[in-house]
Amino acid sequence: MSHTIREKSKLQARVRRLKGQVEAVERALEAERGCAEILNLVASIRGAVTGLTAELIEDHIREHIIGASSAREREDGGEELIEVIKAYVK
């Protein structure tokens, strides 16, 4: 069973919190709040996305690299991670 399936409810809760944070930015813009307040809201979203990303990367490493049952699976897991990191740092 994949780590995203095992941790599904926890991951979904994090995504729901992110959704709420994005909606807070939208409400702040609609209410014409100051830029500092909006920037703080956006910074909190960035932190939450970074935390979610770090959790998913850690779980991927544990499941598909450290916990791989063969050298081929370990290599595939590593290659997948490399591609994700390349996309993330663009």
Fourth-tier CATH superfamily name: Metal-sensitive repressor, helix protomer
Question: What global shape is seen?
Answer: elongated
The CATH C-level class name: Mainly Alpha
For the record, the count of structural domains works out to 1
By secondary-structure content and strand pairing, the structural class works out as: mainly alpha
Number of helical regions: 4
Write the CATH fold name.
Methane Monooxygenase Hydroxylase, Chain G, domain 1
Q: Which bin fits the share of residues in helices?
A: over 70%
- Distance between the amino and carboxyl termini: 31 Å
Number of strands: 0
Note poorly predicted spans.
none
**If you average the pLDDT, what whole number results?**
94
**H-E order:** HHHH
CATH architecture type: Up-down Bundle
Rg, please?
17 Å
Strand content: under 5%
Q: How many strands, which pairing sense, and closed or not: the largest β-sheet?
A: none
